[in-house]
């Protein structure tokens, strides 16, 4: 059986876990980047052995993109993502790191809301100017966590097509390699707007979008109130929230081998940002959102914290593991697709991102 690597980004550093059986026999190293905010991390297995990435930020040294080629034993900073000198802007945090569909391509999503692209494996990044200069940008707002591109979905077979999402601004998509971008929010409700204005062209507070590489035209979206599916590459969206205990949440994840299987972690909206009845449950649909089932065997009954947009993930084993990191510093793992759960680490700082891969 292949081993598993698990990255846990927190508000005070990064932890790296490894396991051969994905239950309780985990070994951990960390904190890497002690006392730095790690909002994004990535395991890139395109070349066989994993390359690890981390987006770390501190108020003294600013944001950094770090790379490790030895499973976290050593790290080195790249030149990072920076705005060109002719722009009056500076990167505050790196919220997203994603592998592109072409060799060597890596995307970074940042705060303030911008997307950067690397063609040399993350060593250097260039601003996607077509998105930064979009006429809607001046009207994009900030969620409570800040304004950032937290979702970047390169099309698995068409390198000119990329789908992104920002809070608050909504979903945008390019079909020409970033030269132009158009909003893709038809059917997504902005519940915080006045009645009669809740379906704007843009301005939605999208929390996360996911899809399966074998069916790229189908996407799943967790909104600030609302869970949606698109069957036409984000041209239109349809609600799939019926059957869930709440339609508010942050993460949404697709099974790595089953395009119809999707996972969410519903929480209460408003000021009560914890699950209904304070019971931790991952909800799974095996029919693309037509019906939902709770998965909670081994998860805590008393759970008064949230799970952030990048703190739910899956690995790529034949029987995939699912990992859930919470704002109380605990991480749970399920090696059987969510049927049963074990706590794999506890007492970390506030968890912002988890990423896992088989190697």
UniProtKB/TrEMBL annotation:
Gene Ontology biological-process entries: xyloglucan metabolic process
UniProt protein name: Exo-alpha-sialidase
Top-rank taxon: Bacteria
InterPro entries: WD40/YVTN_repeat-like_dom_sf (IPR015943), Xyloglucanase_GH74 (IPR052025)
Lineage: Bacteria, Bacillati, Actinomycetota, Actinomycetes, Propionibacteriales
PANTHER family noted in UniProt: EXO-ALPHA-SIALIDASE, XYLOGLUCANASE (EUROFUNG)
Provenance organism: Nocardioides marmoriginsengisoli
């Amino acid at each position: 059986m292949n081993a598993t690597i698990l990255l846990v980004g927190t508000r005070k550093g990064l932890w790296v876990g490894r396991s051969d059986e994905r239950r309780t026999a985990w070994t951990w190293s960390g904190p890497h980047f002690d006392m730095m905010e790690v909002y994004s991390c990535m395991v890139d297995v395109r070349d066989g052995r994993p390359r690890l990435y981390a987006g770390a930020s501190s108020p003294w040294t600013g944001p950094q993109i770090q790379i490790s080629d030895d499973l976290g034993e050593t790290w080195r900073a790249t030149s990072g993502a920076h705005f060109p000198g002719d722009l009056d802007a500076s990167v505050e945090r790196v919220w997203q790191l994603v592998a592109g569909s072409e060799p060597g391509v890596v995307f970074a999503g940042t705060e303030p809301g911008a997307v950067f692209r690397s063609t040399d494996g993350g060593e250097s990044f260039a601003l996607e100017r077509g998105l930064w200069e979009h006429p809607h940008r001046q009207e994009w707002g900030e969620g409570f966590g800040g304004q950032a591109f937290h979702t970047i979905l390169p099309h698995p077979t068409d390198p000119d097509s990329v789908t992104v999402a920002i809070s608050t601004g909504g979903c945008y998509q390019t079909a020409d390699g970033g030269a132009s971008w158009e909003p893709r929010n038809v059917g997504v409700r902005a519940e915080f707007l006045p009645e009669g204005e809740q379906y704007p062209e843009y301005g939605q507070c999208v929390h996360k979008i996911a899809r399966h590489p074998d069916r790229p035209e189908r996407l799943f979206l967790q909104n600030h109130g609302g869970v949606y599916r698109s069957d036409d590459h984000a041209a239109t969206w349809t609600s799939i929230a019926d059957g869930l205990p709440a339609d508010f949440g942050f993460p949404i994840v697709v099974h790595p081998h089953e395009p119809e299987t999707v996972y969410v972690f519903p929480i209460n909206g408003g000021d009560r940002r914890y699950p209904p009845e304070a019971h931790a449950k991952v909800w799974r649909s095996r029919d693309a959102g037509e019906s939902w089932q709770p998965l909670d065997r081994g998860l805590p009954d008393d759970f008064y914290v949230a799970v952030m947009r990048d703190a739910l993930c899956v690995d790529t084993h034949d029987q995939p593991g699912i990992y859930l990191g919470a704002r109380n510093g605990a991480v749970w793992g399920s090696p059987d697709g969510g049927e049963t759960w074990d706590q794999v680490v506890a007492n970390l700082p506030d968890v912002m991102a988890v990423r896992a891969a088989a190697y």
